[in-house]
Every structure is written in structure tokens, then in C-alpha cells.
Amino acid sequence: MHMEIPPYQPIATGLKLNQEQQQLLLLLKRGVWLYFLLLVFEGALRKWFFPALAAPLLIVRDPVALTLLAIAYHKGLFPKNIFVIGFISTGFISFFLTLLIGHGNLFVAIYGLRILVIHVPFMFLVGKIFRQYDVVKIGKAMLWIAIPMTVLIAIQFYSPQSAWVNRGVGGDMEGAGFSGAMGYFRPPGTFSFTNGTTLFYGMLTPFVTYFWLQQRKTVSFWILSTASVALIAAIPLSISRGLFFQVSVSVFFTLFAVLKQPRLFSTIAAGAFALILMALALKNFSFFQTATEAFALRFQTANETEGGLEGVIVDRYLGGMYEAIFGETEIPFWGLGLGMGTNVGSMLLSGQVTFLISEGEWGRIIGEMGFLIGIALIYLRIITVLRLGIKSYQSLTADNPLPWLILSFSLLNVMQGQWAQPTSLGFAIMSGGLTIAALKCKTSDKPNCSNVKKSI
């Protein structure tokens, strides 16, 4: 299979653009930034500022992505490759089957369809119009956002669920936190649910490691150091094993990059030493000690429940994959219908938020779309990640580690992230698009990087 990354004429080739093309590119890029900012602050709008509009704000990024895709299509810039065609085709086939022999609810079917015909193509559009310096700008923005975000989750951690900072979606006074340990709740930050905190800091980690490796001259040392402290503090404050595992994966990818590029050893060693000093300094503060104790207890009790570290990894990830495909199920061959496995779908169909199909992503896909179409969609997600992985590795060997580092986050989120949940979907789409865009760099770009082949 062959997926173009580009060339995409004329925007992504580095050719000199006329004024109209420059304005179009600027418009599209601003739209991507709007999508990103809404992803980070959509929960704040739904919880604190416009609680009465909580329901429509759930899909506030959809019209942004749809509008940008429509503009791109009108201007001949719509991302066209076998993967986009495949995702859209499986979506529409399942959509019509849903109405003919599935649950038959048009609104639920449309809600499920939007994932594959709006958000996934948008991921490729991000990769098409962004270049590596745009990706770096996103990373810098995340450094700035991480600092007040960590202050917020610390306040949420130590505040009761009835406090304004912990107010739930729609102004719910029961709070947006989720059960943690020692009487403390997992804080949601600016997001609607606590998974947003995990995903935000998970996507931040590759940028933190990248700036320590390559870009300290273009990023303020104090901003990078403060954001690094914020990331370290966020791990126990989040009481999230998922964040701990994601940070560990990113660290592993970073160490691998250093092995492939030994010249990076001195910079990563200095960065690692600085981070260790920051962690030791944090241990002297009671707020960090309490959060660490709660996190450690949560880690221990959850691991015991799930059969230790092996049970967590095998059952939660590999086991979920196996059960989705080979487990015993009574799902019809053509599935139960698009959207049925989402929270919105379950509310419209059953009147309550519950898992009508499966909590796992692959199980949801096969349950909604049936075995044949579901496996086709899973195959598309796996192959997309594999091709991104191959190109990211080639880019790493060409002295461009950024796509490889971002891949540490996008890999699992694109392949088996829970796309039924809007926040999880948004981070998967953004990280996938940024991985593609990070491959597109030339020695004339800022930051400097080597030429790499542009198709995957």
C-alpha cells in the first residue's frame, strides 16, 4: 500500500506561493490551531463557562474539521490516498448497513459515521498542510499550557468534588473527578473527563524530550524546565497508571533514539540529570508527597486486582485485542450498527450511559460494524501505524527524531485508541497528523533537519 504524505501541490512542496495560496494555507493552519485549542479547552467550556450548552459543545470540533475539509476539497487540497478512501468507504458501508439491518437510528448512525468521514480525513489534512516547524509551535504551546494545567490539577486534587474547579459537565455539582486512592480523586484538568489529563500529558512528553534533545536554543530554558517539572508533578497528581505507562513508552522511544544517534547522548544526559534534580526537589514538598502516596497505593491495589503488571499489560492491551477478534460473541456478522458503542449512542438508544457493546476499542468496532468490515477497519488502523512507524524510523536515521518521538504517543492512540470518546479521538487525530507533518522537513526549515523521503 502507498500513502502520500506529500507531495501535495502546491502547498506542501516548499515552492514559492502566491498571495492567494499563502492566505489559504494560513486559513487552514489557523483552523488546525482552533481544533487543537478546542480539544484542550472544550471541557472548560462545558463545565464552567457554558454549562447549558454542554451537549452541543461535545462535538464543537466537528464543524471546524468539516469546514476545513470542505475548503480543502474546494481548493483541490483534500487528502487523497488509499487510507482516506478506505476509512471513508468502511464508514459509509457500515452506515447504510446500520440503517438497513442494524439498530436503524439515523442520529446514532451519523454520530458514529462522523469519526471516519470527518475526523480521520482531518488527521491526514493536518499532515498535509503542516510542516515540522508548525509541529514544533504546537509543542511550544503545550509547554506553556502545561504549567497552569498542572497548577489546576493540583488544586482539583486537593479540593472537594463540590468545589467550582471540580464541577462536572453541565455544571454537575457531584464533580468531574474519578475514583483514585486515599480519598483523593483523579483530576480532569480543563477536560470533561479524567482521560483528558492523561492524554494531554502523554502528548506533552515527546515534546519535552525533543526540546531537551534538540531545541533548547529555540525554547527558553526556564519554560522548558518549568514544563518538565509540571510533567513530573502531573504523574502522581493524575493518579493515572495510563499516564505513567505512556511516559514510560516515550522515555523508551527517546532512549532508542539516543542509541541510533549517539551524538544526542550528551544532551539527553544533561536533560536527564536536570529532571532527576527536579524530581528530588519536588519530594521535599508535602503536596507532591501526598500525591505520590495516593498514586503508589492506586498502582498497587489496581495491579493486585488485575493480576500484577503482566495482567495490566496483557489483559488491558493484548488481551483486549485478542478477545475482540477471537473471543466468543453473539454479535451479528454485519454488526449492531454504527454509533451504538458510544456514550451518545447508548444514551439515545437505551436512555442511559452504558457499554452496550464493549468497553475496548476493537471490541466496539467489531460490535458496531460486524466481523468483516470491523476487521477491515482494524487492519487500516494497524497498517497506518506501521507505515508511520517505518517512515518515522527512517526519519530518525536521517537525523530527524521528532516524528519518532511523537510516534511514541500516536502509535497506540491511532491503532487502538478509544475513538468513540471525543477527547480520546481528538488526541489520536492530532497526534497522528503531527506525526505525519513532522516527517516533512528540509534543511531550509526551522528547526533544521535533514531531507527524508516524503511518502509512506
Overview of this protein structure:
This protein is mostly helical. The chain has one domain (11-438). The protein contains 16 helices and two strands. Strands 1-2 form a two-stranded antiparallel ribbon. It is globular. Residues 1-15 and 443-456 have low confidence and may be disordered.
What amount of the residues lies in strands? Answer: under 5%
Question: How many H/I helical runs?
Answer: 16
Q: What helical percentage do the residues reach?
A: 55-70%
The overall pLDDT average reads 85
Q: What count of structural domains?
A: 1
> How many angstroms does the end-to-end distance come to?
9 Å
Radius of gyration: 22 Å
Structural class: mainly alpha
Sheet with the most strands: spatial strand order: 1-2
Biggest sheet record: 2 strands, antiparallel
Note the overall shape. globular
The count of DSSP E runs of length 2 or more, i.e. the number of strands, is 2
Unreliable spans are: 1-15, 443-456
Element string (H = helix, E = strand): HHHHHHEEHHHHHHHHHH
Give the SSE map.
Layout: H1 19-49, H2 54-57, H3 61-74, H4 82-101, H5 106-129, H6 132-158, E1 178-181, E2 184-186, H7 195-213, H8 221-238, H9 241-260, H10 265-282, H11 286-305, H12 308-326, H13 343-350, H14 361-397, H15 402-416, H16 422-438
Antiparallel strand pairs: 1-2
What brief labels describe this structure?
about 450 residues, mainly alpha, disordered C terminus
In short:
Helix 14 runs antiparallel to helix 15 (402-416). With 456 residues, the protein is an all-alpha fold.
